[in-house]
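Reminder to self: C-alpha cells first, then the designed residues, so the page reads top to bottom the way the pipeline ran.
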C-alpha cells in the first residue's frame, strides 16, 4: 500500500465534501442577495432547458436586488416566470430585457428555519467526513494486519488522517459561522 497516494486521495475526498457544502450553503438564501440563488434555475425556451446564466448576464444591485440582463428580449418573460416558479421567495419585475429579482427581508421565524437548515446541512457533511475517516482507518488497519505497512507507518498515517479531518471540520465550522452571520444580517 502506498500511504502517500492513500493520503492524497483521502484529502481529495475531504475537499470534495467541503466544496459540496460550500455549494449547498450558497443555494440557501439569506438577507444578502447572491448570484448563486438564481444562476442554476432552468428556463424552458425554444424547446430547450437552459439555465438563466446561459441566457443573460447576472449582477447584484445592493442592497437586495439581482439584475438579469437577457440577451434575447423574447426570453425575458420565460426567465421571470422560471424565477417565480422556483419559489425561492424573490419578487420579480421585468422591464424590457432587464429582470429585477428583489429579495424581501427575512422574518425572525424564517431566519430561525434557515439557520436550522444550515446547521443540519453542515452536520450531514460532518457525518460524511467521520464515515470516510472510519473507512480510511479500517483500510489502514487491514493493511497493517496483512503486513503491507508496519506499525509505525500505521500510526503515522492514522495521525495524518486525523489531522486532515480536524482541518476539514475547522473549515466546515467557518463556513457554518459565515452563513449563520449572513442569515442574521
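Designed residues (185 positions):
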Amino acid at each position: 500500500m502506498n500511504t502517500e497516494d492513500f493520503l492524497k486521495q483521502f484529502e481529495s475526498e475531504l475537499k470534495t465534501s467541503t466544496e459540496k457544502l460550500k455549494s449547498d450553503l450558497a443555494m440557501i438564501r439569506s438577507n444578502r442577495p447572491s448570484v448563486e440563488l438564481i444562476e442554476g434555475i432552468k428556463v424552458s425556451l425554444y424547446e430547450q432547458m437552459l439555465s438563466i446564466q446561459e441566457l443573460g448576464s447576472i449582477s447584484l444591485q445592493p442592497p437586495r436586488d439581482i439584475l438579469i440582463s437577457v440577451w434575447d428580449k423574447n426570453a425575458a418573460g420565460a426567465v421571470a416566470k422560471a424565477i417565480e416558479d422556483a419559489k425561492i421567495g424573490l419578487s420579480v419585475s421585468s422591464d424590457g430585457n432587464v429582470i429585477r429579482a428583489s429579495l424581501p427581508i427575512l422574518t425572525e421565524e424564517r431566519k430561525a428555519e434557515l439557520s436550522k437548515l444550515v446547521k443540519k446541512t453542515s452536520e450531514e457533511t460532518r457525518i460524511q467526513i467521520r464515515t470516510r475517516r472510519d473507512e480510511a482507518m479500517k483500510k489502514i488497519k487491514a493493511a497493517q494486519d496483512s503486513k503491507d505497512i508496519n506499525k509505525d507507518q500505521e500510526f503515522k498515517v492514522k495521525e495524518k488522517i486525523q489531522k486532515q479531518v480536524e482541518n476539514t471540520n475547522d473549515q466546515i465550522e467557518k463556513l457554518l459561522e459565515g452563513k449563520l452571520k449572513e442569515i442574521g444580517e
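The chain has a mean pLDDT of 88.
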